[in-house]
Structure formats: C-alpha cells, structure tokens
What we know:
With 95 residues, this protein is mostly beta strands. It contains 1 helix and 4 strands, in the order E-E-H-E-E.
Amino acid sequence: MSTYVSEPDNGNLFAIQNKVNPKAPDFRGNVVLSVPLLTELVAELKSGGEAKIEIALWRKNSSSVGEFYGAKLSKAWKRPEAPKPAREVDDDVPF
C-alpha cells in the first residue's frame, strides 16, 4: 500500500465524519511547508514584519474519501509601496 505524499506548500482538508464535540472543526488536514517558503517567512519576521500566509482552496471529490478540499499555501501578497514623489526644489526662494 502506498502512502500519499503532498507536494511542498500543498495539502488537503478532509471532513470530520464522526464529530462528537460541536466545537470540533468541520475539516482537518495537513500541509507540507517547503524550506523556501519557511525561509521567506522567517526573514519577514526577522525584519519586523508579519509571517502572513495566503491559503487557496479547491473543492474536490474522491470515491474513497468523499468531498475534501485541496489547499495551496504561499506567502501573502503584499501591495508594493508607491514611491514617494520627489520634492520639488524652487531655486528662486532666497533662503
């Protein structure tokens, strides 16, 4: 029997079939994080930023496990800061 191994920064979330606690999650799964993604996140933390991850989900269906979600993690997109306009210098000002 082979064991499924997820691609780096990918994973799956499966529905909990026999929930006994109403506060338990509806889905559970694992994600394998790659060294490059972890390196980027650690660098962001060391520079005083946040280690923010973006999660994308795809609804899937399998005959063996039923409905589940495929997940892809990546470093969260950050809007680049707009360059500050250069200050205009007026050479006619006497001071």
